[in-house]
Amino acid sequence: MRFAAAPEYQVFPTRERPLKPYAAAVRASAVTARVIREVDPEIVVADILTVAAALAAELEERPWVTLVPHVLPMGEPGFPVYALGGVRPRTRVGERMWRLARPLLMKGEERGRRELNGARERVGLPPLEHVHGGISRRLALVATFPQLEYPRRSDEPWLRVTGPLLWEQPFGEVSLPPGDEPLVLVAPSTSQDPDGRLLLASLEGLAGEPVRVLATTNRRAPARSPAVPANARLVDWVSYARTMPRCDAVVCHAGHGTVVRALASGVPVVACPHAGDMAENAARVRWAGAGVSLPRRFQTPRGVRLALRRLLGDPSYARRAAELRDWAERHDGAALAADELERVMQR
Q1: What pLDDT, in 10s, does the model give residues 132-143?
Q2: Rounded to 10 degrees, what is the CA torsion of 15, 20, 23, 28?
Q3: Which one is predicted more confidently, 215 or 7?
Q4: What is the tally of helices (H) and strands (E) in the chain?
């Protein structure tokens, strides 16, 4: 394995002359195309957000595959709009409501198609008729639990749900709070909530509860110095792979990586979404019965306390998380993804 530096362009308004995202993708596609010519690959695998790599692969006439490192953002009629935090309805009336609302709420999909086609035109590629053109119709590897994916009416042969692709930077053991009470890991996002609102709310709300709390700052100091209660321990960093299997619950912002790591460890989740796709991940966890979700306005000490009581008070959440852990032990996401790649390459 070797690495080539990816071209980097400023696309957000934090410097003098920012580029629009697709303008940056057009520039980056030329650099990436040169790398593809040098490496001469049989196939190109690009992240769903890496538009430049997909454009470059097409320009160099190489087959390309999309890696979707979270739940699939492509909806169907009757599905709730992605990232709003709505759960797929279980009745026909609910499906009909989402079916009627979807065209009004999903105008961004068509706008995205137009903008992508504009970028394709600038690099010399033909336009696409379908939305979500950044997802390969040869093969899309959806790296999540199938239990978090809504059942689809349409059978797309190029879609493969592999299971999570889990990796973390190695890290040593940390000391756990003493005692035999249920262990709760508070695992805030590394990119959201810079003031540490969830961390502070969890430490305050779970003080005095019959649980042990292990909380991490993720090496980001909260807005104010937290009061660490007697039943808690606060650390700068923690290995999820080492720690989560020992836990009874995980309180997190519902980033996909944290959620699937917890479920692969057999631990139910209190999902506290903040931004991006976190509300969607929280909705999927709730729909799958593997945890509870706590909207942002309720992410207070009392809100966290009541949500955790609900999670620990109902054993069905732990049973469901254990089912997902057992599934993950039988299905290696990385091996399944590699098998699918080899299958496509042999066509």
Answers
A1: 889 999 999 999
A2: 50
A3: 215
A4: 11, 10
